[in-house]
Amino acid sequence: MEDLSDKRKVYNSGYLIESELKDNPMELFRDWYIFAEQSNLIVETNAMSISTIEDDKIPRTRIVLLKQYTWEGFIFYTNYEGRKGQAIAKNPNVCLNFYWDKIEKQIIINGIAEKIASNLSDGYFHSRPRGSQLGAIVSPQSQIIPNREFMDNRLKEMEEATRNIEEIERPKNWGGFIVKPFQIEFWQGRPNRLHDRIIYTLDENQNWNINRLAP
């Protein structure tokens, strides 16, 4: 084992003050996302963790890729019958997290996940590389499989079966979710661990309330 107690860094790349906030957190998210992209320091700016709660009440977290953000929320795609999809079907409350370490920013999003319209899932599915389309069809996501060869063989069989098919049909168990936020926290690293934390909370009148949290 290793003692990590002396591993630390000084945060001093930015700040977050009230005078620079937006009324709508999606505007601030857009600004931060563009800044992260244009910094050329983040390999996958759109990588985010998503946490779900299953029947056993145990939270589970994994990384997915954000594929679109709108005024309504954050869109990603997955297998609806996988562990993540089944958890969302039973409990749509999820938590997203973006952590961009090189620019010392973090965004924590609590929201409700809903399936997007089928035509939107169709459009994105057909924009994917053919191999990714076939992969979505052949993978029984989250189920136990005997070995790696099982998946490789299923893919080869599907490639052969669809060799003369120009457009692959999206499987009905695969598509998009939109996470509609009701709370978003923006975290900016600051010196002496006195980080800036601004939290937006949606009230019953669909207005965003803004508060600062102690670090």
TrEMBL record:
Family assignment from sequence similarity: Belongs to the pyridoxamine 5'-phosphate oxidase family.
Origin species: Apibacter adventoris
PROSITE patterns found in the cross-reference section: PYRIDOX_OXIDASE
Pathway per the UniProt entry: Cofactor metabolism; pyridoxal 5'-phosphate salvage; pyridoxal 5'-phosphate from pyridoxine 5'-phosphate: step 1/1; Cofactor metabolism; pyridoxal 5'-phosphate salvage; pyridoxal 5'-phosphate from pyridoxamine 5'-phosphate: step 1/1
Reactions this protein catalyses: pyridoxine 5'-phosphate + O2 = pyridoxal 5'-phosphate + H2O2; pyridoxamine 5'-phosphate + O2 + H2O = pyridoxal 5'-phosphate + H2O2 + NH4(+)
Class of the enzyme per the UniProt entry, highest EC level: oxidoreductase
HAMAP family associated with the record: PdxH (MF_01629)
Keyword check for Flavoprotein: yes
Gene label: pdxH
Entry keyword set: Flavoprotein, FMN, Oxidoreductase, Pyridoxine biosynthesis
A GO molecular function held by the record: pyridoxamine phosphate oxidase activity
Annotated cofactor note: Binds 1 FMN per subunit.
Limits of the Pyridoxine 5'-phosphate oxidase dimerisation C-terminal domain: 174-215
Protein name listed in UniProt: Pyridoxine/pyridoxamine 5'-phosphate oxidase
Keyword Metal-binding: no
Cofactor: FMN
EC number: 1.4.3.5
Residues reported in the UniProt entry to bind FMN: 62-67, 77-78, 83-84, 106, 141-142, 187, 197
Domain Pyridoxamine 5'-phosphate oxidase N-terminal: 39-158
Alphabetized Gene3D superfamilies for the sequence: Electron Transport, Fmn-binding Protein, Chain A (2.30.110.10)
Function: Catalyzes the oxidation of either pyridoxine 5'-phosphate (PNP) or pyridoxamine 5'-phosphate (PMP) into pyridoxal 5'-phosphate (PLP).
SUBUNIT field: Homodimer.
